Amino acid sequence: MRTYVRGDCLSPEAQTTLTSAELKQYWRVDDKELPIGKPYLRRRDIELYEKTSRTC
């Protein structure tokens, strides 16, 4: 299962590499809670991505 976290809720170590705009976006995180991939501006964007990226 994929986990998404708002940038300002990431660990302090992860936040140091993000800009102020990126702290307001949602990030997919790995098992160590480090951001991976590209950020999403809104939670709705994540839902749309998840729906379209599934393979049947």
Jot down its keywords.
globular; 56 residues; 3-stranded antiparallel beta sheet; alpha+beta; 27% helix; 2 helices
What does this molecule look like?
The chain has two helices and three strands. It is of the alpha+beta class and 56 residues long. It is globular, with a radius of gyration of 12 Å. It starts with a strand and ends with a helix. A hairpin with a 5-residue loop joins strand 2 and strand 3.
* Gyration radius from CA atoms, angstroms: 12 Å
Strand content: 25-35%
DSSP, total strands: 3
Low confidence ranges? none
Largest sheet: 3 strands, antiparallel
Number of helices in the DSSP assignment:
2
Structural class: alpha+beta
Report strand order across the widest sheet.
1-2-3
Average pLDDT over all residues: 88
Shape: globular
Concise synopsis of the structure shown:
With 56 residues, this protein is α+β, with helices and mostly antiparallel strands. The chain is built from two helices and three strands, in the order βαββα.
List the helices and strands and how they pair.
Elements: E1 3-6, H1 12-15, E2 26-29, E3 35-40, H2 43-53
Antiparallel strand pairs: 1-2, 2-3
